[in-house]
Every structure is written in C-alpha cells, then in structure tokens.
Design brief:
By secondary structure, this protein is of the alpha/beta class. It is about 60% helix and about 10% strand. Strands 1-5-3-4-2 form a five-stranded mixed beta sheet.
C-alpha cells in the first residue's frame, strides 16, 4: 500500500513524462495553501534517491511559490514503481477530473494512451466518461495539431491566403496574432476534422472560423454550404453566413431579402448597405417628416 510521508520540496522532481506541457495556473491554489496548507497529499514514487511526482503538479508548483526548498509537504509514496504510461495515466486522471486540462490537452493525452496500448473503453471507464467523448477529444486534438503544423510550415503564398481571410473578416491584426487553433472549441475542431482530412484545408477553415467568430452551429452551416459548392472560397461562404445572422437580427422578414439583393447591386455587404441606408435616408429632416405623416 502507498505510505504516507512528509518529504522536503527539494527531494521532489517532476516526471520525465509529464502529461501537461503548458504553464499551470496556480495562483488561486497558492492562496488556498497559504491559508489551509496542502490538504491532499501529492502522489510520488521513489526514483534515483529522489521522489518523482506522479500526481499533484499544481500543489507542488504552488508550494514552491510559498515555502523554502527544505519545507516538507505531505506525500503518498507508491509501494510499487509505476510504468511511465501508468504514471501518466494516473496523473492525467486527476488533472482531467479537476478540469486542469483544456480539451486539446485531453486529446493529446488520449493519443498518448492509445499509443501505449490502452483502448477507448479502458480510458473512458477510468475517467468516468463515454467512449464518444474520448474519441471527440482525440479527433479535436488531431485537427488542432494538423492546423498548427500547417501554420508553422506554410509557404509565403499560403500565409498570404490566410491573411486575406483575416482581412476579409474586418480584422486589422496580423493573422498570427489572433488565430490560435488550440482556442477553437473541441466540438468545432472535431466537426472540421469530420468534413476534411486535408490539413491545408483544415487550416483554412480553422482560420475562417476564428476570423469570423463563428459558433459551432454557424461553422456547420458554412461547411454544409461549402460541401454543396466546393468551388466557392470558404471565406465568401462565411461572409454569407455572418450576413444572414446580421439580417435576421437587424431586419425581419422579406425586407432582409430586399437589402441582400440591393447589396449585391452596389457591391457592398449587407451590413455596409444597412449603414449606408441609415446614413443617406435616416437624416433628421426625413425622420421628422415621417413622424409628421404618421401623426
């Protein structure tokens, strides 16, 4: 059985195979530890005269911000050394259940566990999740990794194409400053991966989704339209989707059709057309005259 011990911070070391490679937010936990101490022991295993952390990285990192290196903290020492993947599994279970990992990190871990030989069913059972959820995490991570790879190795022409998409959405910032695949909801990433396995097309769609701030439903609408008209640029379809939202909210009924048709004639977006109409027609004198007629 695991043995309870109080071990100095300077005798603890991170695992060689940590589940998380992103900075941990420990400020809130640090405040809690300062008030109440570490209530739940960190799980460790003995390795090379040190104690390797299996689970409890947030508590360990928070404690380092508060205590000197010689300060002891509560630990549970595993009596049987864990295999690297088993340690990763145990660490991830705690992190996932504490919602420390974002969906992409969860998917990254699922991919690692699948590679280590675990099945979807085993992973789902250990986490108390459905197999479909585990598969969705994995699919979302694969799409995010593909998009990230394209961003990191794209040619000048490919970058120019994605920059054009961002500018067409009215964004002024450079594409690399506002587009981040890991910030796209996992359900949307999964949807993109279901529609195409072409990595460059996935990157184009992901860029469009973020540039136009599309929800999952609107992304579905855009992709359905793109499948029906694959020759049409994806950003033009996104513009149509956004305009349909704007017209539905701003102008009800058949009037929106008139605005849409008129916008095509003057080669402007629906939003620009409405603003033009308001500016040109809704002057103070015109409004007063209309009110007089109504009254």
């Amino acid at each position: 059985m695991p043995e309870y011990r109080e071990i100095p911070l300077n005798k603890l070391v991170p695992s060689d195979n940590p589940i998380r490679s992103f900075p941990l937010d420990v400020e809130e936990l640090k405040d809690s530890i300062m008030l109440d101490g570490i209530l739940q022991p960190i799980i460790v295993q003995y390795k090379d005269d040190m104690y390797e952390i299996v689970s409890g990285y947030r508590r360990y990192n928070a404690a380092k911000l508060i205590y000197p290196p010689t300060q002891v903290i509560p630990c549970m020492v595993m009596d049987t050394p864990l295999h690297a993947d088993e340690a990763s599994f145990l660490s991830a279970i705690e992190n996932v259940q504490r919602v420390e990992l974002n969906p992409i990190e969860r998917g990254e871990w699922v991919l690692r566990m699948l590679k280590a030989g675990y099945t979807y069913k085993e992973i789902a059972n250990r986490l108390g999740k459905s197999e479909s959820t585990i598969k969705r995490w994995k699919d979302a991570a694969e799409t995010a990794f593909s998009v990230k790879k394209v961003y990191e190795s794209m040619s000048p022409q490919e970058e120019k194409t994605l920059e054009y998409i961002v500018k067409s959405a009215g964004k002024e910032e450079p594409m690399k400053e506002i587009i981040e695949p890991y910030e796209i909801p996992s359900v949307t990433l999964t949807l993109i991966g279901q529609y195409t396995k072409d990595e460059k097309k996935q990157a184009e769609i992901a860029t469009t989704v973020q540039a136009y701030d599309l929800s999952m439903d609107k992304t579905q609408q855009m992709l359905d339209s793109w499948k029906a008209t694959p020759e049409k640029p994806i950003h033009e379809i996104a513009q149509n989707v956004k305009e349909s939202i704007y017209l539905t909210i701003v102008i009800p009924g058949r009037i929106s059709d008139n605005v849409r048709n008129f916008s095509k004639e003057i080669n402007k977006s629906a939003k620009e057309t409405i603003e033009w109409i308001i500016e040109k027609i809704m002057t103070k004198d015109n409004i007063l005259n209309m009110l007089k007629r109504e009254l």
